[in-house]
Here is the input.
Amino acid sequence: MTLFSTRDETEVSTTTEPALGGAPAGDGGNRAASGEGLTVRGLHKVLGGRTIIDNLDLQVNEGELVSLLGPSGCGKTTTLRMIAGFLDPDGGSIQVNGREVSHLGAEKRPSAMVFQNYALWPHMTVFKNVAFPLKLRKRPKKEIEERVDAVLELVNLLHHKQSRPARISGGEQQRVALARALVQEPQLLLLDEPLSNLDAKLRVKVREDIRGIQQRLGITTVIVTHDQEEAMSISDRIAVMNAGKIEQFSTPADLYARPRTEFVATFVGSLNRFEGSYRDGRISDGSDVVGVRPEDVKFSREPVPGSLPAVVERVVPRGHFQELFLRREDALLRSFASGESPAVGEAGHALITRAMTFRGDQRVDADQPVNGGQA
Ligand SMILES: Nc1ncnc2c1ncn2[C@@H]1O[C@H](COP(=O)(O)OP(=O)(O)OP(=O)(O)O)[C@@H](O)[C@H]1O
Ligand SMILES: [Mg+2]
Here is the structure.
């Protein structure tokens, strides 16, 4: 990725405030040649006597966007802060484009981090906010102006150059924070819940902006989120985290279709979950866990092979589809259906077209993933 032509690669490192992210490394010019992205091996962190990150491995290819997805407290921010250099690991290695960086402070790493709360300076204009990391590095005035203008154009904010953060919208502030990271020309872009302060509509817009810019620049990116829809829609691959470990690392489609554990199946996508066993389209007593995706439940007025009588107990309009609650003798099934909605109380038939079985959290049915679920 090269945004700017004026870049001088022999930079003097300076100490920046943590919220600014790191400075580009002196070998920035070689970034395209190494072609390795981010490699994390055996990352380990104990906090307050508790293992928070447990021997975590992660490989992000150059130019790839990977999401760390997991519930609150699973260790996403801790992982990202160690990669960025704001927190010392207790063990493990971190390589960016083939270079070990774990001994370096954040300001010396070739990465830039965008924090959840943006951390913009309210008294500075948009231009000055974005220019700040370059000023710290004492870049010439003309170069700063060119680089900031280029990056503001990229995030579509050139017209707000002289505005103060309070005078622009939340989504625009988020893009300023992104610009302030991008202006550093990082080899690795790290974003911690970058959309969490935005309303639903703006989230979708800004996440598409981020994805578009990331793809245009081909910049290796790790983005933290607890929102599965967000992760599914922008990621090349998703690392699903649970209690300090990565449970499964794969493409969005593969994670959804072939979850390896009950945790992943529940966390990515929606699931009907039953304790029991599954055979011939029915759920009966048993000690396993049966998971059925709502789109794998079909309601019909006439019986079809394998279906059981069902009554529509509830209909929840979901915009372009409906969620039906179907009462069968063996289970209450949620079903996603499109087209004309049946009425509450209507009698018909419900068919399970596909089910997953988990034993001790692990997937055990025949449809389980090959290659250990790795993409
Ligand atoms: N300084 C600390 N001392 C002790 N425990 C800590 C410290 N910092 C974080 N933790 C614990 O580490 C765990 C992981 O925290 P982390 O902030 O990485 O979670 P997260 O996945 O980012 O969650 P969220 O989605 O809520 O942001 C939590 O249980 C947290 O309480
Ligand atoms: Mg967090």
User: Anything to note?
Assistant: Residues 4-35, 369-375 have pLDDT under 50 and may be disordered. The longest helix spans residues 200-217. Residues 94 and 100 are 6 Å apart (CA to CA). Residues 47-48, 52, 70, 72-78, 226 surround adenosine-5'-triphosphate (ligand 1) (CB under 6 Å).
